[in-house]
Fold these 2 entries.
Entry 1:
Amino acid sequence: MDLVGLFPEEITTWLETRQIASFRADQIFTWLHKHAAQNFQEMTNLPSSLMTELEETFQSPWPIELVASRKSADGTEKYLFALNDDATIEAVLIPEEDRQTLCISTQVGCAMACSFCATGQSGYVRNLWASEIVAQVLWVENRLRAKGQNVSNIVYMGMGEPLANYDALLRSVRLLNHEKGLNLGARRLTISTCGLAPQIKALAEEDIQVNLAISLHATTDAERSQVMPVNKRFPLQELLEACEYYTEKTGRRISYEYALIRGFNDTVDQAKRLKRLLKGRLCHVNLIPINPVGPEKRPSAKVLTEFAQVLKAGGIPVSIRKERGTDIEAACGQLRQTHLQE
């Protein structure tokens, strides 16, 4: 049991078993989630006896510890964290003028085995607990506050498939969104999935206004299955039906991520197919020049622009993601892979 993964009412239950006043639960939760306290000694309005009890039971407020970090010339920072079982996960901070976006992990490794993803190439180890997901945010929040800044946006797009760790994912969203904690608006949280259709439909029923991003990356089942094995379980038609259901239930626009790979999915004809696939849908396309982790290569700027123009001409909202952190192996799983090899 990790303290940072508990809601105030659950902390209250823990306190009551020790005959400690229940009002301390809100104090503890606020210290952890609103102030991002990194140790129990910072919780100055708690009695020393309770601090001792917390230290003996939980050892540390956060179940993660920094192992390595790298900073890019463009300001992007990548962190490698060790968990209590010595497994490692990554998070990436992407600073911009008006926001501090943190990309976080939901699993150790990944079972989806997408061909262009370093995490997928390393295999699946286990799901993260909600506490391990939230602790990534709190660690970076604590670091940013020393510079007068705060985490403003969260993207569940790091290591792992978020919807494959559904319960812990939702718990972490509600902890980050909690009014007594960081109180991050749900619309500042983005969940990215490779396309688990049943979980997309389930998410539509949760009544949380998070953003949803779909990793699409191809316009036919044959092409998509070649780079994303999950497509054999949930082919394009089933995936898009789930997305339509999500939009109808939530009224939320879906972002479709499309990583362009030279000579594979970057032609004008494929852009036209993507346009037809998404026509009439409440959507936005995010074009991504692939960050190579294998033999794949990114297309030229000219090809990227032509692809975007086809979509714009068809009335599909589109943007080209700015490249960040390429000099620090910022793609998911790269730093972990390097660390394991070393």
Entry 2:
Amino acid sequence: MLSATLGLIGAIVYGGADFLGGLASRRLGAVRVTALSAVAGLALIAVALPLIGGTFSAEAVQLGILSGVTGAIALSLLYGCLAIGPMSILSPVTAVVSALVPLTVGLVGGERLSIVGWIAIGIALVAVVLVGFVPEKGAARPRLLGLGMAVGAGAMIGLFLVIIDRTPDDSGLVPLLLNRATSAVIMVSAVVVLVVVTRLRGARSTETAAAGAAGAAGHGPGVLPAWAERAVLLAIACGVVDAIANVLLLLALRAGELTVVSVLTALYPAGTVILAAVLLRERVAPVQVVGLVLAFVAAGMLALA
């Protein structure tokens, strides 16, 4: 019951991080927001590590670094496929694949579910699709490239879950510390490359072309305007909330089964949908309401199972 509860709460918190990151990305750009959030998350985990504890070992360090690499790849593919669109199709595809990969690994590894558990898993997978589905009028069919990237993003997210599940029980937050450090290095390096490329383009093109390149990157180097300062705070908050979600995920995996936690974690779009409805007054489609109800039903069944 504890594992299912932590898994569901973690999913909602993940959705909150996505919500904050999405708002910040409108101003700063996805790459910069991801870099800032990675650094903020690293700071939080570094502060929490002495309080919660954890044993450094070769296995914990290696798995932590590997999870950081898979996480960076997952985010790159996720943002890329959503940019190609349509989001209403590619987002649920990513979420479902992210659940199926660890679910399959767990079952092959010997984890077993009761009949009630299997029914709950089925309901949860349906809920994942319904919650993540955002009706778009006249949405185009997804391109093969977009579908491939969506599947790849989901597979990398699922692999991240599998790797974290494999970390030693006595490692505490050590794997998450290495995960955040690796992600921060990768994403900050990406920002540096992006800034250099933008400057080179600005030097070789007209003022108009340079402005367009800076806009595509998020915002050029220099002093940030007032609106960007708020975006920076949102990005930092995104990293803190995402780090908290990672801790909840780790605790859920240590307390229960990979099969259960992975499916519940895939319900992360629920947190985004709820916050968007409450804070931004965005309309929640009836199909998403059904998905939210099914998500809580499935979580309750998994807790009992």
